Amino acid sequence: HPRMNTDDATADLQALHQRYRGLREGRVAGYIPELAKADPEAFAIAMVGVDGRVVQVGDSEARFTLQSMSKPLAYGLALQQLGREAVHRKVGVEPTGEAFNSIVELEEEVHRPYNPMINSGAITIAALLHEAAPGQAATRLMHMVQAYLGRPVTADEPTLRSELATGHRNRAIAHLLHHYGVIGPDIQAVLQLYSLQCSLQVGTLDLALVAATLAHRGVQPLTGRQVLAPALVRDMLSLMFTCGMYDTAGEWAYTVGLPAKSGVSGGILAVVPGRMGLAVYSPRLDAHGHSVRGMAVLKALAAQWRLSLFGTG
Ligand code: GLN
Question: Coiled-coil ranges per the record (predicted)?
C-alpha cells in the first residue's frame, strides 16, 4: 500500500463529501420517534489511523445514537466475560439473509439466533450480560464503550425512553427467546440493557475510534489502552465481515471487502485491519437500514484507497 499523508487523506475525504452531499435518496428512520428528528442533511466522515492520525470532514459536531453499532461491542464484552463457548451455545455465527429485526429464524428447528449482529442475537447477548451480573451489566457495558472512545459516554434519555416505549418487535423477540429457553425470565431488564446500548450518544469520530481500535488488535490508538484481547477482536471482525451489514452483507463483502457495522441512526463504521478505522454519518437510510451516503462514501473510498482485504485485482 502506498503511504498516504494526512493532507492527501483530508483532500480525498473532502472530495467524497463534496461528491455525495447532493445525494438525497433514502429516508431517516421513523420507527422510533426520536430518530425521526435527525437532520437529514447531516453528513460527516472520519478516519483514525492505527498510528493515532485523525482526519475529519463535514459535520464533525453532529451527535447521534450508537444503535446497532453497539452490537459488536456488546458481543466482545460477552466473549470477555463468559468465554467463547458459553456465548456460542446460545448464539450462532451464520449470516441470515434477513432484515436486522427478523424473527423468522427463531421459528426454525433449532431455536437459536443466527448471529450477534442482528436483534435476536444482540438481545440474547444482552441477556447473557445481564444474567452474568444482574445490576452491573449496564455499568460494565458503558465502561467497555468508554474504553473504545477514550472518554465518558452517556445515554440519550429521550431516545432510550422512545426505544423502550415503541420497541414492540424487540419485545416480541425477547418473549420468543424466553419461550424457547434461550434467555431467562428477566425480559424487562434485558430490553432495558439492549435499549441502553442502542441509545448511547456518539459522534462520527467516536465511530472511527471504535473501528481504529479494532483495526489495531484492540489497542485504542489515542489512549494506548488495550481495550480487548486480540483473539476477541478477531471474533468480532469475523462476524462483522459476514453479518455486520445484515441482508446486504454479501454485497458489502463483494464491493467493499471490509468488516463493518451500520446502525439505523445513520452511522457506518468500517475496519481496515492493521491500518485504520473509518466512519460515515448521514441519517437517510436505504431499505435495509444502511446510510445511503455512508454506503456510497465507503464503496468509493474502498476502491480509491484499495482497501479490500483481498487485494486490488
Ligand atoms: N434500536 C434499534 C432496534 O433494535 C437498533 C437497530 C439498528 O440500528 N439496526 O430496533
Answer: none
